[in-house]
Amino acid sequence: MTVGSGQVYVVTGGCGFLGSHLVRMLLEHEKNISEIRVFDLHLDESLRTLSNDRVKVRLISGDISRLEDVREALRGSHLVIHTASLVDVWGRVPASKITEVNVTGTMNVLQACKEEEVQYLVYTSSMEVVGPNIHGDHFYRGNEDTEYRIYHKEPYPLSKAKAEKLVLEANGAKIKGGKLLYTCSLRPTGIYGEGHELMKQFHRQGLRTGRCVFRAIPPAIEHGRVYVGNVAWMHLLAARQLQIHPSTLGGQVYFCYDSSPYKSYEDFNMEFLSACGFKIIGSRPLVPYFLLYLLALLNALMQWVLHGFFTYAPILNPYTLAVASTTFTVQTDKAEKHFGYQPLYAWEEAKKRTITWVKSLEVSRKDLKDVGEKGNYCCN
Ligand SMILES: NC(=O)C1=CN([C@@H]2O[C@H](COP(=O)(O)OP(=O)(O)OC[C@H]3O[C@@H](n4cnc5c(N)ncnc54)[C@H](O)[C@@H]3O)[C@@H](O)[C@H]2O)C=CC1
Ligand SMILES: CC(C)[C@@H](O)CC[C@@H](C)[C@H]1CC[C@H]2[C@@H]3[C@H](O)CC4=CC(=O)CC[C@]4(C)[C@H]3CC[C@]12C
């Protein structure tokens, strides 16, 4: 549907880390829209103030796992960018809830597209639909066609893989009014940037250890990372080109990455944390892998014992250790060839923006005094 001179886009999960950057990206760079519907379970009222005289930002509170909520949000819209998801590999929420949101929620979006005559859907998938698997099979500079032993047992990657399959299978389906539905799926690697909750956790944790990060993963293990602004940019381009060349993009998957350096997860985080005086201790892991794995197992046991009394969900568990310990990097030009994707932000700009944000955590932390910070650096 076109409102006035522009189209109506729906961004599910639009108040999230990626979603909020995506809303801002659409406002700044997409001239063909007149309304952005931000559909989310947890609304961020600050997004409402982003409306301008050309584009209205409309916040819609709803649950993706309720078909009626989704149908109402999509009614009269032109295109959906579906980023809403429970992103949990720490056991914070039950597996059933992850499935309900990530799989049933995606089924509802597809159903609503068909019933509300929405022809275009861009799905935010994940590198996790491919790997890394828990067998330690490295995926080194792989692309969308690279053979890989995909093995999912954890709720999150399983749900993303199931959802992506549903999205791709729906491409070309007849929708109400006799039109066809066109879908594509973007697979970001580990997203970083302003507002990344996990980075906030690493920062908080580091303050408690005197700004020291104790190396746990061999530096040679590389993990693909991508700046949130480039993920948003790729979604905008895919949404635009899916409408112009549906037969090219329809039913396709695209890895989403940029020129961020290939590094171990810890070394990559230090690109930002070191700007706040953090130091990584050890040129190689300080403890042998088997001890780390025992600690991860202990965390999993503690989570099981405390289940029902307290949600114990530390960063380190057998799954996150396996993922962090297995190289997963991508190198592909499929998105460039199909829809002209080139990162909007170079690495230096992405780094600068992220450092500025991490530094703001220092200023805004009300409990800085609680951790006895005041210049208490372990490695002076
Ligand atoms: N964070 C990362 O490193 C990566 C994330 N992704 C994908 O990117 C997308 C966005 O992820 P993030 O921004 O990191 O997560 P996020 O948790 O910041 O954002 C997800 C949004 O979905 C909303 N949501 C959750 N349950 C909902 C429900 N039942 N109904 C409506 N809205 C609901 C949340 O309120 C939140 O605003 C997800 O689909 C995720 O799988 C893919 C690759 C990497
Ligand atoms: C404690 C140390 C071993 C530390 O290095 C652990 C890091 C670990 C928490 C992260 C390492 C790799 C991350 C995942 C990866 O970026 C792929 C992802 C894709 C998504 O769609 C969601 C997030 C994640 C699963 C991401 C989660 C955090 C890591 C496991």
Automatic annotation (TrEMBL):
InterPro entries recorded: 3Beta_OHSteriod_DH/Estase, NAD(P)-bd_dom_sf, NAD(P)_dehydrat-like
Superkingdom, taxonomy of origin: Eukaryota
UniProt xrefs under Pfam families: 3Beta_HSD
Residue span, 3-beta hydroxysteroid dehydrogenase/isomerase domain: 10-279
Pathway where it operates: Steroid biosynthesis; Lipid metabolism; steroid biosynthesis
GO CC annotations, alphabetized: endoplasmic reticulum membrane
Keyword ATP-binding part of the UniProt annotation: no
Catalytic activities: 7alpha-hydroxycholesterol + NAD(+) = 7alpha-hydroxycholest-4-en-3-one + NADH + H(+); 7alpha,25-dihydroxycholesterol + NAD(+) = 7alpha,25-dihydroxy-4-cholesten-3-one + NADH + H(+); (25R)-cholest-5-en-3beta,7alpha,26-triol + NAD(+) = (25R)-7alpha,26-dihydroxycholest-4-en-3-one + NADH + H(+); (24S)-7alpha-dihydroxycholesterol + NAD(+) = (24S)-7alpha,24-dihydroxycholest-4-en-3-one + NADH + H(+)
Enzyme class: oxidoreductase
SUPFAM superfamilies to which the protein is assigned, alphabetical: NAD(P)-binding Rossmann-fold domains
Gene Ontology molecular-function annotations: cholest-5-ene-3-beta,7-alpha-diol 3-beta-dehydrogenase activity; oxidoreductase activity, acting on the CH-OH group of donors, NAD or NADP as acceptor
EC numbers on record: 1.1.1.181
GO biological process: steroid biosynthetic process
Transmembrane segments: 286-306
Protein keywords: Endoplasmic reticulum, Lipid metabolism, Membrane, NAD, Oxidoreductase, Steroidogenesis, Transmembrane, Transmembrane helix
Sequence similarity: Belongs to the 3-beta-HSD family.
Function: The 3-beta-HSD enzymatic system plays a crucial role in the biosynthesis of all classes of hormonal steroids. HSD VII is active against four 7-alpha-hydroxylated sterols. Does not metabolize several different C(19/21) steroids as substrates. Involved in bile acid synthesis. Plays a key role in cell positioning and movement in lymphoid tissues by mediating degradation of 7-alpha,25-dihydroxycholesterol (7-alpha,25-OHC): 7-alpha,25-OHC acts as a ligand for the G protein-coupled receptor GPR183/EBI2, a chemotactic receptor for a number of lymphoid cells.
Protein name, entry field: 3 beta-hydroxysteroid dehydrogenase type 7
Lineage, highest ranks first: Eukaryota, Metazoa, Chordata, Craniata, Vertebrata
Gene: hsd3b7.L
